[in-house]
Amino acid sequence: MARPLITVLGASGFVGSAVLAALAERPVSVRAVSRRPAAVPAAGPAEFEVRTADLTDAESLAEAVAGSDAVIHLVLDASGWRGADDDSATARVNVDVMRDLVGCLRAGRGGRPPVVVSAGSVSQVGPPPRSPIDGTEPDRPQTSYDRQKQSAEGLLKRASHAGTVRGVSLRLPTVFGDGPDRGVLATMARRALAGEALTMWHDGTVERELLYVHDVADAFVAALDHADALAGGHWLLGRGRGERIGDVFRTIAGLVSAHTERPPVPVVSVPPPADARRTDFHSVVVDSSAFRAVTGWRPRVPLREALTRMVRALAGSPPRS
Questions:
Q1: Structural domain tally of the chain?
Q2: pLDDT tens digits, 18-37
Q3: Which of 36, 186, 217, 273 has its CB 3.0 to 4.6 Å from that of 181, i.e. a possible disulfide?
Q4: Is residue 307 part of a domain?
């Protein structure tokens, strides 16, 4: 029996690298596609094919996904996420790639529509109307990035409802981990390792939903397993617990202190920049019970352990499993 072919777009990125590691444990064929060659796991039953491609080119994208039973779409450009107006360059990545993807996919073995699992963002809801959010709230995206993610998600949902694909959108909270992470927690860990103070734009009581990247990867694999039940909707991921930013930054400072044997750097409040948004000062907590009920997924790595792995990786020490 032929192995199912799963194509990962954006395979060399932060989440993509973790998804490849999760898929390595399965008897599948994985096509890892990105602008630069992705590093694939050395062990496991999965078979890997590495391709490089400019996925903003429609013909290259069609070649990359040809014959796929499932596609995990992780391509994004977050460079304009604070922009006031929609930017055509980022929209080419964040919206048009999705439009081209659902336009070129064809039914796979047995005539079944291929599965597409795409990464969205919990920030698409805009300022949270309540806490926790669970995905049933009306969306009021505030930034060009969130509007673009919303547009891409709409394309996927319409294609799913038309029967072209079985589309699933997973909305992610703040993701962090021990890979090529450029997010806020990794930035603060790097500052602490450099002996610099960690800065906040508020008093530190604002809460954020934090999710370890390997738990995110497990959710994408779970979505593949339950695509028929999830298709056509968006699903929120999270631990179901908000973490105060001040407490998290102090934990990072303490972990770095333990690693370097230097006193912990201070955590301080500073005036917000001119481009600060309302959402920067709203707490975000996610109720992911809907996704959990369908898939059985749940985060496995405790927050402190995940932060420890991140600090060790950024400090140049191999993360402990």
A1: 1
A2: 999 999 999 999 999 999 99
A3: 186
A4: no
- Best CA proximity match to 15, nearest among 48, 49, 38: 38
User: Given a cut of 90, is residue 86 above it in pLDDT?
Assistant: no
Query: For residue 113, what are the contacts with CB-CB under 8 A and spacing of at least 6?
Result: 105, 107, 163, 164, 165, 166
The CATH number that applies at residue 129 is: 3.40.50.720
CA–CA dist 236, 133 (Å, integer): 9
Residue 256 inside a domain? The answer is no
Question: For 70-163, where are the E strands, in sequence order?
Answer: 70-73, 115-121
Using one digit for the tens of pLDDT, what is the confidence trace for 178-195? 877 788 999 999 999 999
- Whether 312 maps to a domain, the answer reads no
Question: What is the residue range of 100's domain?
Answer: 5-180+209-241+285-300
Count of all residues that appear for the chain in the document:
321
Query: In the prediction, which pLDDT does 153 show?
Result: 98
Q: Tell me the residue ranges of DSSP E strands in the chain.
A: 5-9, 29-34, 47-52, 70-73, 115-121, 166-172, 174-176, 198-200, 207-212, 233-236, 242-244, 267-269
Closest to 101 measured CA to CA, from 23, 26, 9: 9
Max CA pair span of the chain: 62
Phi/psi at 122 (nearest 5 deg)? -65, -20
- Cis ω before 132 (30° cut-off from 0): yes
Cα gap 169→143, rounded to integer Å: 19
pLDDT, one tens digit per residue, over 113-145 is 999 999 999 999 999 999 999 999 999 998 899
Concatenate the DSSP letters of all residues of 20-76 into one string. HHHHTTSSSEEEEEESSPPP--SSSS-EEEEEE--TTSHHHHHHHHTT-SEEEE---
Residue 141: φ, ψ to 5°: -60, 140
**Does residue 195 come out as left (phi exceeding 0), alpha (psi in the -120 to 50 range) or beta?**
left
